[in-house]
From TrEMBL, chains A, B:
One Pfam family this sequence matches: Ala_racemase_N
Gene Ontology MF term list: D-serine ammonia-lyase activity
Organism: Methylobacterium nodulans (strain LMG 21967 / CNCM I-2342 / ORS 2060)
D-serine dehydratase-like domain span: 271-378
SUPFAM superfamilies: PLP-binding barrel
The protein's name in its UniProt record: Alanine racemase domain protein
Family statement drawn from the similarity comment of this UniProt entry: Belongs to the DSD1 family.
Top-level taxon of the source organism: Bacteria
Keyword terms of this UniProt record: Lyase
GO biological process: D-serine catabolic process
CDD domains, alphabetized: PLPDE_III_DSD_D-TA_like_1 (cd06812)
């Protein structure tokens, strides 16, 4: 299902325009912050004695993957089969496709595996297990499988205490010649928290659920070499990961305002921003209009449910420093309405038509997906490279 | 700023898979409904005696543009310069770039015009007028310009009664050798309405503001051949367009749940849907999990502010008929949580793993932008074509 953008041209990483010569809106990535975020997570997980499997769903870029992964062949996590195909072409070998497998996707999974990538699928039902077992037999490709376990009731997965279902799935898979790799959990409810103790408790609950499910399998004689957990907040706040073999996290690499609201990243570590140009004013209303609307920023309003509502993003100068109380208060498709927070007594900065600003996004995964490349800022604040990224399925 | 998706392959319109063989999630477009929506708008505007300039920001597809436009060369409206470049390559000649022009974009505008397209820009300030006049002189490309006028206080534009600013901009442009084409308005506040009389009143207010501004220019001896208004709701509800020369509208072509909530389209006319596959269940909670999360549907939650909150979309069977009270209640990046509306006593349909559903989107512009092509359903409900679309700037 790969369809070209009809006006697509090859990326030209050698022609890197200056920051003030870029056409706007576009996506900026601060490489220094990116590397520091990765280094911090890696050191933290090394201290906890577990492997790190970066989730590539936020970046969808081979250049970023090579910084985030511990080795060029992985491990890595993907959210779409298009990502798996793209990263496999880039030499990544050890991947998990982190969305419950649909039977109609199995042929595509095997095609990716036939190209040399060790792609693992996840599932949480007997129906899926049967489909995977049938496919493994008929295709002579014994698929590696992780059973998805529900860490906190937020989405998919077998309940960790539901030994009957866990064992029935495990036995069905083994009988079908599938390679049962273990269990996988994602503590998605941690996104709703913001207290460090509550986040540490969520990480411990995720660990305990994982260990419970793994022990259930092992006690019945089923293999469970991998115990994979992760989310950016629980990865950041985990204090003890005994029994866990690997941690997954993705959005922490870039950071965003939502994760800053959770407390999983610091505002000054956010590596992603949207470059925008001022195109007008409604001075009586205190509005500055820019060319970065929701199409460039995404429709994500996740911070609306947090203590500090950041509108559609925090407005910064070209050096990346936030203007006091200045946010994108509203958006249309290609217009951003920049204004002071309600009740603020800060001064509206003087930003004439043509002035440029950087906007920190609510949600890096959503904002990134609106763009097809990153303009990468080096340590001097100049554009040192252009890194393509993919989208779609 | 054209950067290829690194895994992009050419579109293969000759290989059109059956609906149940498509990889999901993907975007379906009902060609019969699309053509009917266009025909209805065209007939309505013909009755009102005005030209129709379709806004291509929703579709971003040359195939759709050729159905929507009254002639292969236009007129048409675009929201990005990448659209202008793409449609110009496709033979569209008469285009307006509908976002207030930034000085740094003028060279790109002239490059598009040098290729043969008559691309008009819009502006609402003396600063922009000065930049355009300077550019017109120095580049020997006398740019055509429309002055943006504020219909209803929702975004950009000179107030229609602000004769001083209108005339100052007009005179500055003329003195600079710019081709002053007239005025342009967009009644964006109509999106917040839902009563037919209020929508008709919004259309009449948009018309009056346009005529006021046009008469101000003409009374001072300035040219104003074009009087351009439009939004899907006001286009639909306008009863009298005397003094207006053209109407713009875009989202009506596809329709969506938000516009259905406004009353600008009928639910059964919505031509766009996302095809999704069931990948799991949480039966105790009444959840059906699909592979269409916010990445496939967009983060748009516009119906949350309307009388009927449609969640992230209305769930339909493969024929496009909604299941009673079944909506996408929540989403993660690649997961949709399908459930009955709160308080519904309808029965949850039996949708096993692998079953397929179609999801009507909240906002066609936002949902479309998450995809790179349309799988086009012909009258028999089969995929008759694959139409590429563009994104980005």
């Amino acid at each position: 299902m790969l369809v070209a953008q009809p006006n697509a041209k090859p990326p030209t990483p050698r022609s890197c325009p200056a920051l003030d010569a870029l056409q706007t809106p576009c996506l900026l990535l601060d490489e220094v912050r990116l590397r520091a975020n990765v280094e911090r997570m890696r050191a933290h997980l090394t201290r906890l004695g577990v492997a790190f499997r970066p989730h590539l769903k936020t970046a969808k870029s081979l250049d970023v993957a090579r910084i985030a992964m511990t080795a060029p062949e992985g491990p890595a996590m993907v959210s779409t089969l298009r990502e798996a195909e793209y990263f496999a072409r880039g030499g990544v070998r050890d991947m998990i496709y982190g969305v419950g497998i649909a039977p109609a996707k199995l042929a595509r999974v095997s095609a990716i595996r036939a190209g040399g990538a060790d792609l693992t699928v996840i599932l949480d039902s007997l129906e899926q297990a049967e489909a995977v077992a049938d496919h493994s037999s008929s295709s002579s490709d014994p698929l590696p499988v992780l059973i998805e376990v529900d860490a906190d009731g937020h989405r998919s997965g077998v309940a960790p205490g539901d030994a009957d279902t866990l064992l029935a799935i495990g036995r069905l898979l083994l009988a079908g010649g599938v390679s049962l790799r273990g269990v996988l959990l994602h503590a998605g409810d941690s996104y709703a928290l913001s207290d460090p103790e509550a986040l540490a408790a969520a990480a411990e609950a995720e660990r305990r659920a994982a260990v419970t499910a793994a022990e259930t399998l092992r006690a019945a004689g089923l293999p469970c070499p991998m115990v994979s957990v992760g989310s950016t907040p629980t990865a950041r706040y985990a204090r003890n990961l005994v029994g866990v073999t690997e941690v997954r996290a993705g959005v922490f690499m870039f950071g965003d305002l939502f994760q800053a609201g959770v407390g999983a990243v610091a505002m000054e570590d956010i590596a992603l921003s949207v470059l925008a140009t001022v195109i007008g004013h409604q001075r009586a209303k205190g509005w500055i209009i820019t060319d970065a609307g929701w199409m460039a920023l995404s429709r994500d309003r996740g911070t609306a449910r947090q203590k500090v509502d950041q509108g559609y993003g925090v407005v910064c100068n070209l050096a990346g420093q936030p203007y006091p109380d200045l946010i994108v208060a509203d958006t249309n498709q290609e217009h951003g309405i920049v204004a002071l927070r309600r009740g603020s007594d800060a001064a509206l900065p003087d930003l004439p038509v043509g002035a440029r600003v950087r906007i920190l996004p609510n949600h890096a995964c959503a904002t990134g997906a609106q763009h097809d490349c990153y303009y990468v800022l080096d340590g001097s604040g100049r554009v040192g490279a252009v890194w393509p990224r993919i989208n779609g399925w």
